[in-house]
Amino acid sequence: MTTAETIVESLPLMEAFYTIQGEGFYTGHAAYFIRLAGCDVGCHWCDVKESWDENLHPKVLVNDIVSQAEENGKLVVITGGEPLMWNLDHLTSKLKEKGIQTNIETSGAYELSGFWDWICLSPKKKKLPTQSVYDAANELKCIIYNHHDFKFAEEQAARVNKNAKLYLQVEWGKKDEMLPLVIDYVKNNPKWAISTQTHKYLDIP
């Protein structure tokens, strides 16, 4: 975590919406999602590829982002794209001034910025996390798309801090094929838990 706030007055915003968190530790909680644009990690199975090019989305003043968040509960999830492409000190400090809990979902590919209550690290093979994110993560969520992903998940579990909660989550398009394997894996390796995209099962936008 940075020790002094860096002032970034505006950020590329793809969308912001109030919904139910469908994944990981905070599954089932009402949350206001702030989806920042920009990502160079390039997962082929990404379901928000329209977020990759930050130039396609407007720069929005941090004060305006925070004002909208204030009207939508007390839990914010900042996601992307890859949100850590941008320095998030100013945004998160402003949210905290309003008494809002700050969570992030990140691949960890960039150095950690911002002031966080919960860090969900979802690492990707193409661009591995920085040590600062491994050290600070509260939650490790590894996506299972193929058989090799179990090995990758164990490699990531060995690198993340010992207090991080460990989750395996089947990539949605492969759930019929891979979910039975994930269930068996977790039964045989109970340090892991299953994260399910419950919002998709419940048809929650």
From TrEMBL:
Binding locations of [4Fe-4S] cluster: C39, C43, C46
GO MF annotations in UniProt: 4 iron, 4 sulfur cluster binding; carbon-nitrogen lyase activity; magnesium ion binding; S-adenosyl-L-methionine binding
Amino acids binding substrate: I20, Q21, G22, R35, T79, P205
Alphabetical list of InterPro entries matching this protein: 7-CO-7-deazaguanine_synth-like, Aldolase_TIM, rSAM, rSAM_sf
Keywords from the named record: 4Fe-4S, Iron, Iron-sulfur, Lyase, Magnesium, Metal-binding, Queuosine biosynthesis, S-adenosyl-L-methionine
EC number of this enzyme: 4.3.99.3
Known function: Catalyzes the complex heterocyclic radical-mediated conversion of 6-carboxy-5,6,7,8-tetrahydropterin (CPH4) to 7-carboxy-7-deazaguanine (CDG), a step common to the biosynthetic pathways of all 7-deazapurine-containing compounds.
Stated name of the protein: 7-carboxy-7-deazaguanine synthase
Organism: Paenimyroides baculatum
